[in-house]
Amino acid sequence: MKKLLLSAITIALAITVSHHQAFAFAKGEQDCAKCHTLNAEQARDVLKAIIPDVKILGVKNGPINGLWEIAVEAGNKKGIMYIDFGKKNLIAGSIIDIQTRKNYTQASYEVVNKIDVAAIPLGDAFVLGDKDAKHKIIVFSDPDCPFCGKLHQEMKKVVEKRKDIAFFIKLFPLPMHPDAARKAKAIACAHSLAMLDDAFAKKPIPDPKCDTKIIDENIKLGEKLGISGTPSLIFPNGKLIAAALDADKIIEEVDKK
């Protein structure tokens, strides 16, 4: 049972959907703060039996009556969970309004996972587009990831359409791809976008010509930011989307107010 609950929690913490919304509750919901209360310490006491290292980031009334919404962090992952007012049940999953299709859980998830883009060093990144473009999108990419290759072609379409958008690519080889780290280091040493294109085209990549720490630093940074898969895009507003978006969707995300 404990393993099952932990699996559910892992899934809940890993939810990523591409719709950007504000951290909000359903309109017209009943405010039960006067009849039921739960603070961060109490929420941690409820959850610690299942997630010993849980950190409570915030507690609010949930989007439906009878639930608290808890923003949590565990194992460098942030997510949203719900506890019923009786403190007997934990819900790890999305709450979606059937009529409007609004995903309240995802809206909250995006807020707690917002990234401070100013804290991400870009000096070693590969730049696709004008480095001085108004809108900078940071991309964590793996040279052996087929979805990264697909996204890369869409990124090229974006910079052709929009000169005010540029991509800053940080190589982030995944453990599931045995040769990705070697290729990433070779590409980093050459600092060659052409070589990255070759990798996506499955052409041979030579061994690294230098001893670089860039890739190791990218991996540490990605883990700190909660990135565990590729491709992952970080938009100028700090929104993280882990998906191979098409060009129009990328532009749509940039233009959202």
CATH fold name of the largest domain, please? Glutaredoxin
- Overall tally of structural domains: 2
Q: Please name the fourth-level CATH homologous superfamily of the largest domain.
A: Glutaredoxin
CATH architecture label of the largest domain = 3-Layer(aba) Sandwich
Number of strands: 9
**Rg for CA atoms:** 21 Å
What are the low-pLDDT stretches, counting only 5+ consecutive residues below 50? 1-34
Strand-pairing-aware structural class: alpha+beta
Percent of residues in helices? 25-40%
Q: Please give the count of helices.
A: 8
Task: Tell me, rounded to a whole number, the average pLDDT.
Answer: 86
Strand order of the largest sheet: 5-7-6-8-9
- The helix/strand order is HHEEEEHEEHEHHHEEH
Distance between the termini: 44 Å
Q: Which percent range describes the beta-strand content?
A: 15-25%
CATH first level of the largest domain: which class? Answer: Alpha Beta
Query: Strand count, sense and closure of the main sheet?
Result: 5 strands, mixed
